[in-house]
What we know:
The chain is α+β, with helices and mostly antiparallel strands. It has helices at 49-58, 68-91, 109-119, 124-135, 162-181; strands spanning 2-5, 34-37, 97-105, 141-142, 158-159, 189-198, 203-204, 208-209, 213-221. The protein has a domain at 96-221: CATH 3.90.470.10.
Amino acid sequence: MTEEKITPVKAQPLPKKGEKVIEQPIDDKPTILETKTLDKPTPTSKPSEQSKSDIKSSEPKKTDTPDKDSKDTKSSSEKDKDKKKKSIEQKLTKKDHAIAKGQALHVSKKQCMYICKFIKNKPIDQAIKDLEQVIKLKRPVPFKGEIPHRKGKGIMSGRYPIKASKLFINILKALKGNIIVNQMELEKTIIKEASASWASRPMRRGNVEGKRTNVILTAEEIKPMEGK
Length: 228
């Protein structure tokens, strides 16, 4: 930016009365204006392409060599996995029997006793199928006492304990999983023992004890009979 200064022009005095006015020649020269220039900031010179190339050449080049730390972490993780596999293989040893329990079931002991007798000495898959038919009211569980007679071969009186059958199916599925974990052959295993007993019974109104039952199921492999 520039600042301009204008030189002032002297005004001529007015003529008095009776005096002649003499016209003075006007200079044709233009008035000179004094200018002052402000100091402008000099633009910074942009780096040339050669200087850029020099800077790039001076920078250290990055090598794509893998870090040793990453290799160490990978090797340690692989070692941990191998140790876990070995420990699992050592723990998984074959056993002769498998057990499944149901504690404090909300069913009567009488129904559990008859269901235990109903599924005893049967393969697990067959026992689950029979109890599913009981739930569908297609096959009764044999009971004793003054109970209505039911249709079927070898059955006189029986009932359809639906709630207890559903609980027993869950226990049988748990027993099946334990058999697989114990590395037993599922096709050759049967329910060897099935028992029901009273659990801790809560008190109800009128000094009546509630229904709570514990159930234990054990499965074993059938050993082939040795010939004499």
